[in-house]
Each structure stands twice: as structure tokens, then as C-alpha cells.
């Protein structure tokens, strides 16, 4: 991984020497080897489609970073302190400490802009490479479309984390990275959300035009693809609060992608072993391989040292508030997928003299097991480690539910959520009914919490929806004021919905290297 201490932020846009390990997502390793610049200049090195493919692969590789997924779970209410915690998070994210020198905001900023720098080069060189034949021309076009899609994804990520108000076109987002930056560009100011949204939708529209023009195109969820581009439009419009367009694009993905919600059996495969049937649930994933298995980058190692079971040295566990919701639904497959069967559950946790050791709720969503304690994911050389699921079809149903709530359609909210409930329980469920719009928003936020747990959504969801739902971060007192988990600063009253901390700080290294950039309020 890139060591942010070794490079200044202003070089993010021109820095291109990154991870050099292999990214293999099929039997054709040549096509999926990343581009690693050496003594050659880019103009000399990137002259054919195979070079462009390697450059695109390295873009995906950079994005395979767990920082935001772990941050979102720890900073909000998805985790409690694990019995094997050695101090992780206790003086930072878990107690809501965010300052410009904090590690996670810097990681998200650096990795996203690093990927954007690569994507911009793919876009630029795709227009310069002379294709060998029509098949080669189609590949070059597809790679450009992938890069445009990823550029939109990166800009939306920056906006969602660093803008104080994603719904306000005039609020500041981040630095617009829609070109290859040069060394003589000394200062790069932040621009507004309106500029970001315009660039995001332009890139997605351009990508869709290319995808639609490729003969016999088939979406591959291991690469940025047409369905992901459409889904990103739905997500971006939802973040903006433009629910007419959000619902339009969510419906487009639901109705045309041929991707369907997974039943309980396939849902386990999605998260435990990554071998679900084709066109089940996953719209876009960042592929991981056994060769990439390392404690520093494995997704499951964001919460444990070894494996997602009770003996895997968990430093974070399922929060008691989240577990209590799941435990009300014993036949909901998400209860089994999120909570390891090796967990020790204390029914008297609230009065336990040693809560941390009597109540062990092990997170196993990534690489767990249906029963027993032998997990699919492990931390070892060439061991299995899970893909990063960036978008799933269930998100489109959840966005549709938001759109119905925004329209005041209480019945429509229930109808939008029902397909997810039917799929997760494996049997037809009663359509949810709501007495008022606040209750509908609260249920949408709850369903997003259950469905998207440990996938990096919770922080942004609370930022967007908590006020509408009249809820706040939901931590059980056992996780911050019990006998063995006593962290008063972690009390959720210390992070109200209007806290400035729902916009991450611009990293200190960026401020040092880019003096014209504006810091977010409060920092």
C-alpha cells in the first residue's frame, strides 16, 4: 500500500508508481497484471491495449482498500470492542476523534485520488493507442468506459465523505480530478458539489454511450460495467436528494440488469466464499486473489487478526445494538451471515460483571461459515480472502424505497422493501406498513443498516438520513459504559446528527502541500 508519509498530497495527481503485486481475476494472468512503470516514460510504455489493461487493473487494485469500510463500522454503531482488542480505535474512531492528521481520512483521500490518477491516464491513452483490429478497438473502448465509470465512482466517494452537505450544490466537495495533472500545477482548490455532480454524470453518460456501442457487450461484475454505471447514477442522485432521477435509474438497473436478489443459500455464498451463481446480487466487486492475502489488506482483517471466528483474535465485534436487531429475526439469513456461529451470547449481558468476555459477538460477514468455526477466509500465504462488494442490487431497491418516502408514498416504501425481505427470509413476508413518513424513513435506515452492514455505507447513511428518520447513532450502553467496556467518550450523545464530523477533515498533508485549499468547518 502507499505510505502517505512518503509522498506529499500535491503529488497524488501525478503519482503513478503504486502496488506492484499481481491482480488476477481469471485464468488469463497476462491481461490482469497491473502496469508498473519503470525507466520508460508513460508515452513509451503505454502503446497497446495490453498496457492499458494493466493500467486499469492497477486502478482497481488501489481501490481495494478497506479503510472506509472499517472506519464506517467503527465510527458509527456497527461494532463493539472485541475481547482481543489491544487498543485499536479506543483513542480515535471509536470515541469520535477526528482531526486533520487522523489516519483514515488521509487514507480515503490518498487512495481515491491515487486511483483517479490512474483512471485519468487510461482515459487519456485510450484515445491515443492505435488498435490492432476491431476486437482490439472494442477492448480499448471498454477500458475507457471502465475508467470513466471509476472516475465517477471516485468523485462521488470524495463528495460523500468530505462535503459538509452533499445535497447543497454550493457546498464544497473536493479537488476535481478530471485530467492528468502536471508537476507545474502547484495549487488545486476544492470545487463545489455542483461541479462534482456535473462531472460525475457526464462521465457516467459518456461511459454508457461507449458500453451501448460495443457489439455483444456483456457486463462482468469483476470490472466496472454498464450496470454499475447506471447504479452509480441512482446512488449519486440519491445522495443529492434528487429522488425522481434516483428512482428512474434504480428502476433501470432492477428492470434491465438481469441481476436478481439472492436467496439465503446464495446470499451466504456471496459473502462467505464469493462463488454465488452468475447474475446473483453483485453489480460490481473488486476482486481479490489468494496471492494478495495479507493481514494489512484482507477485508476480514479489518476487525480481527486471524480469522472471523471466536479464536481469530477479534479486536472489534458485532455491536450489541446491531445484534439485538438481528436477534429479533432468527430466520433472516443476515443474522447468520453477520454473526459467527462460534459466538458466545450472554442473555444477561446488560448486568454482566465482565461484558467483554462473557458476550462475544464475532463479525463474520466476510469469509465466515454457516456452521462450526472453520471459516472460508483466513490470514495466510495464498489463503482465501474476500472480494470487496462495491454495489449490489439490493441497494437499488433501498434507493427506490427512499424515493417513495420522499414522495410521501407510505405504501410504496413497503412495496420497495418487500422483495429484499422475501429474499432474506426465503419465504414471502408481510408488506411493511407505516403510520407516518418518519416511521418509513426510520425503517429504510434500519433495513439499510441490516442489509449493508460492514460494507462501508453506515457513516454516509446516517449523514444523509438520520435526521429524516429522527434517529441518531445507536450504540448500546454495554459497548461504552459497562464494567469492561467503559469509554465515556464513545457515548453517542457526543456525536449528534448535526456534528461537523460527518464531513471528514481535509488531511493535514494536503493542507501543507496545497495552501490554497479550504479546510472543512470545525477542524
Topology, element by element:
Blueprint: H1 42-45, H2 49-63, H3 67-75, E1 79-81, H4 103-126, H5 134-162, H6 193-213, H7 226-240, H8 243-256, H9 264-272, E2 282-286, E3 316-318, H10 320-327, H11 333-338, H12 355-358, E4 388-392, H13 393-406, H14 410-425, H15 437-451, H16 458-469, H17 508-513
Antiparallel strand pairs: 1-3, 2-4
Helix pairs in contact: 2-4, 2-5, 4-5, 5-6, 5-7, 6-7, 7-8, 7-13, 8-13, 13-14, 13-15, 14-15, 15-16
Q: What is the compact description of this entry?
A:
The protein is mainly alpha-helical. 42% of the residues lie in helices and 3% in strands.
Describe the structure.
By secondary structure, the chain is mainly alpha-helical. It has one domain (46-287, 303-369, 392-474, 497-513): Serine Threonine Protein Phosphatase 5, Tetratricopeptide repeat (Alpha Horseshoe), CATH 1.25.40.390. Helices cover 42% and strands 3% of the residues. It has 17 helices and 4 strands. The chain has helices spanning 42-45, 49-63, 67-75, 103-126, 134-162, 193-213, 226-240, 243-256, 264-272, 320-327, 333-338, 355-358, 393-406, 410-425, 437-451, 458-469, 508-513; strands spanning 79-81, 282-286, 316-318, 388-392. The strands form 2 sheets. The protein has a two-stranded antiparallel ribbon. The longest helix has 29 residues, at 134-162. The radius of gyration is 22 Å and the shape is globular. The relative contact order is 0.14. Residues 1-40 have low confidence and may be disordered. It holds the Pfam family SusD_RagB. This is RagB/SusD family nutrient uptake outer membrane protein. Residues 351-523 form the RagB/SusD domain.
